[in-house]
Amino acid sequence: MSPTAKGLLLLCRPGFEKECTAEAESLARAGGISGFARTTADSGCVHYVFHELVDWKEALEAAPFDAFVFARQRSIWIERVADMPQEDRVTPLIEAIAAQEIQVGRLDVETADTNEAKSLSGFLKRFIPHIERTLKARRILRDKEELPTLHLLFKDSSQVDLGLSRLGDASPWPMGIARLRMPRNAPSRSTLKLAEAFDALMTEEERTQSLKPGLYAVDLGAAPGGWSFQFSERGMHVYAVDNGPLADSLVASGMVEHVRADGFSWRAPRKQVEWVVCDMVEQPARVAQLVSDWIASGKAKRCIFNLKLPMKKRFEELKKCRQVISSRFGLHGDHYVLRIRQLYHDREEVTAYLAKIPAPDSNKTAKLSRR
């Protein structure tokens, strides 16, 4: 028997519950599933409740993780265990998991990203090892990547929601929080944002092809150099475009050329560069137009950029930016890939990856359609 889905468990940056809810509603509706959201302001968590139970795999297909921007983590909600007695919390939780009649390959323990939820860390460090040992003894938790991941989302020490996801269809980091170490010689903490973007928004093949020594990158709005640092550390040449000052250590590396110019008007002296990145504080639609011009025209192969969203119309502004990019590529019928996510290291913004891709092979498509 396959588990049934009660809804979606969504973790987000506190304050973005409204946007996360709007995405869930849009995806569920498109997948023919009706429901409603349960959340509170600044909770960092959204329960999207289905009006009717559906197979959990159907819910996965309706709301894939990559379709979300504002959800740091998404799992399919299958059960809630509430009122666990203080004298024995293990037994009711294990029995609830066993009742799902499913084996899992990984256990992710999660809470919302709030100070209240963080207070559970001590309890969870003591409690979870008992759960893991028992699940392994009962052959529910197996060391097999092809099996689903079991998410345990704790509200407090007496209530936990059970969720499921598939490998590659959820954040690889529990709670969607990338725990990255700040490089000692990086000019600013913004370097962590680009490092997270490389992991969260790109495939391994894309990283291998584009992040290698000798390639060229353009960093628009570079000062003080946190994003340029990520490229120079990989042996790549960087045009760091900004009228503001760069860190002396970055310029001294010999891999970064400081160009004192306006990022909206400057153009690279090379016919094409591998990368253009942009972290300028500017109207989102204007940034979307700028970076889509760079990529659609072929001046750069790929781009990572930030969109600083207005507080009251984030979802609407993001939709507008998508339309700007679509219109630019539509001028000549170009194809592109666009991936957007609010990263852990983002604040009132989202980060996006954009690249032009070849048109689908019509001959290959025709052969597949005849099979």
Low-confidence stretches: 364-371
CATH T-level fold name of the largest domain: Alpha-Beta Plaits
Distance between the termini: 32 Å
Q: Count of DSSP E strands?
A: 14
Q: In CATH, what is the class of the largest domain? A: Alpha Beta
Widest sheet, order of strands: 2-3-1-4-7-6-5
Mean pLDDT: 94
Beta-strand percent range: 25-35%
- Give Rg in angstroms: 23 Å
Number of domains: 2
User: What is the overall number of helices?
Assistant: 12
Per CATH, the architecture of the largest domain is 2-Layer Sandwich
Provide the helix percentage. Answer: 25-40%
Specify the structural class: alpha/beta
Order of helices and strands: EHEEHEHEHHEEHHEHEHEEHEHEEH
Major sheet: size, sense and barrel closure?
7 strands, mixed
Which overall shape is indicated by the principal axes computed on the Cα atoms? Answer: globular
Brief characterization of the structure:
With 371 residues, the chain is of the alpha/beta class. Helices cover 33% and strands 27% of the residues.
Q: Can you offer a commentary on this structure?
A:
The chain is α/β, with parallel strands linked by helices and 371 residues long. It has two domains: 4-176, 2-Layer Sandwich (Alpha-Beta Plaits); 190-357, Vaccinia Virus protein VP39 (Rossmann fold), CATH 3.40.50. The protein has twelve helices and 14 strands. It has helices at 17-30, 56-62, 90-98, 115-118, 121-137, 190-201, 204-210, 226-232, 248-252, 284-296, 314-330, 362-370; strands spanning 4-12, 35-38, 45-55, 71-81, 106-110, 149-156, 159-165, 216-220, 237-241, 256-259, 273-278, 300-308, 335-341, 349-357. The protein starts with a strand and ends with a helix. It comes from Candidatus Dactylopiibacterium carminicum.
